[in-house]
Amino acid sequence: MRALILSAGRGERLRPLTDSCPKPLIALAGKPLLQWHIEKLRAAGITEIVINSAWLGSMIVDFAGDGAAFGVRISHSREGAGGLETAGGIIKALPLLTAGAEEFFLTVNGDTLIDGDYAQLLHAVPYLQQHSDLQACLFLTANPEHHRQGDFSLAAGSPSAIIKGGDYTFSGAAVYRKSAFAGLPEQRLPLRPLFDKWVQSGQLGGRVLAGKWFDVGTIQRLQQAEAYLSARL
């Protein structure tokens, strides 16, 4: 299975750091966020990786290259300077993610930190194979202080079914079925409308992410993640 590291965001809330450095190359404990993801994916046995980019995308391409320096194979999906939002970025990268007969692919957000085993993400594949009506399996985490309202809940008695509610926050890590994006145009498109549609039709599954998760989207949260890693390393 191939993985997409979503790396196209502008990072407005991390300015001025992101005026000259794309979000995924911001360092945590001396290592760019992007490298944390690449190394954790490789440790989980995922060596085919796609990285999408927009803002300062050439810096991301130069850093990651073809992946040889990290022991993986990396392909790049370049977007325009404004980016295509998350679903649009996935659609553009889809040919790189589903080469041959591959039916599933996973995503992680380039501006997050997950202190957990990425092998857990692979467990969504047999679940989706068993439930052919589901378009995706999202990995959810406890609501952080900056997002107490949450995004979704899990159905009582059926811990893998996502329903409306706010008990959990979407981590950005997910496994998708290729057909979930079939026929959608390559244009700016957010993910949330697709999620809402799939929830309404009972086509979205979910699991709780194991491990500490940070959305490194502001200077304050970057500092919190840095303090966490400094205490761990």
Describe this structure as you would to a colleague.
The chain is α/β, with parallel strands linked by helices and 233 residues long. β9 (152-154) and β10 form a beta hairpin. The protein has a single domain, classed as Spore Coat Polysaccharide Biosynthesis Protein SpsA, Chain A (Alpha-Beta Complex), CATH 3.90.550.10. It is globular. Helices cover 30% and strands 27% of the residues. It has helices spanning 17-20, 33-43, 57-64, 85-97, 119-122, 124-130, 192-200, 219-232, and strands at residues 2-7, 27-28, 31-32, 48-53, 73-78, 104-109, 112-115, 136-142, 152-154, 162-164, 168-177, 204-208, 212-215.
Notable characteristics:
alpha/beta; 8 helices
